[in-house]
Amino acid sequence: MGPTETGTPPARGVSYKTMTAFTPADEERRRGVRRMKLTATSMLLFVALIYVLAKLASHEGAGTWAGYVAAAAEAGMVGALADWFAVTALFRHPLGLPIPHTAIIPTKKDQLGISLGEFVGENFLSEDVVRQRLRSVGIGSRLGTWLAEPEHADRVTAELATALRGALTVLRETDVQAVVTEAITRRANTKEIAPGIGKMLEGIVADGAHRRAVDLVVARAHDWLVLHRDDVMVAVEGGAPGWTPRFVDRRVGERVYKELLRFVTEMRDMPTHPARGALDRFLTDFASDLQSDTDTRVRVERLKGEVLGRGEVQDLIASAWTAVRSMIVAAAEDEQSELRLRVRAQLLSLGARMATEPRVQEKVDSWVEGAAVHVVTTYRKEITSLITDTVASWDAEHTTRKIEAHIGRDLQFIRINGTVVGSLAGLLIYVVTQTLGA
């Protein structure tokens, strides 16, 4: 089908294609159109036969009734032919003659598509229309009532779980790991951690929470010294000068070991031990330096960068996604998981509030209206161009037959009505003429 038959050539990148193939329902409609065409044509032939018989009867000297019948039949033929021409001109050239302003649908298909797109954009995609329509629907109240039903909340929960599981399955593990690693590393590099650590350490020391850690360390140190006396002795003796006698080194080792054990034991058993107080003061000063001392903060940041740059840390960050993903997938698949139960409970609660609280309904309606208005105002041109381009891509001949199959049956009633109305109008005119002539 060339440009001369379809009105205008297709836009670049848009090729003519056939509309959806004829379905059995379309074929049934076409048979109905053919039946109605036969009926309308039969009525035309019937009034034509009546006209001929009435004229013959008039020439044979029949009464005045023959003139009335002939006038009605003649006007009926005119009406039937005129409406046949009008209906046919919508879809094709009558009798194949290229009469101007005929075959309107195939020749004006693209213009009709443009007009349809503009009509939809102006009357359905305007901000006022969208807001009024959504406001009249009351989405917040209806959605809340629907969502407050347990079976509906179960359904939404299941659909959300399926969508979440599908999304996590589709995502490539390596890509997500790379994104997570980069995001965590970038976030850690851009945010200074020393003040935060100092603030946290300050709070821990103030609450005395660190003392339990000190108790644990001192107790473990005491147990280790008891079990590793020989190791301590060897270490002390190994650090002694080579010119000292062995028995002196051993006596020094024993003395050092006993002092260490005594110190650790006293520190373990005495909450008021001076070493504990010294440790408290050290931690307090260190917490202050982390927050206010520039040199300390720089050193902490340097250490942070070295730690984050290690391959083991990067691998740990990357593996975190795998663990999180497995946990989420397992929770999404398990109907009794804490995740799904919490989501279901939240949906039921939200539904109940939306169904009963006007303020929540108003918020939901406002959000929906805002989102819909944003979509239609931002993408109105794309939506209307979809209609225009789609219509432009249809094959003209197939489109014509498709449209005729859908509306042709009703259009044939125009021909039938034209025959009847024309006959009545012709009879009325003849009656008026005869009356005035008398």
Automatic annotation (TrEMBL):
Transmembrane intervals: 38-54, 66-91
GO cellular component, one term: plasma membrane
Domain of life assignment: Bacteria
This protein's record includes keyword Manganese: no
Protein keywords: Membrane, Transmembrane, Transmembrane helix
Pfam families named in the record: DUF445 (PF04286)
Claim: Membrane is one of the keywords in the record: yes
PANTHER family according to UniProt: INNER MEMBRANE PROTEIN, INNER MEMBRANE PROTEIN-RELATED
Name used for this protein in its record: DUF445 domain-containing protein
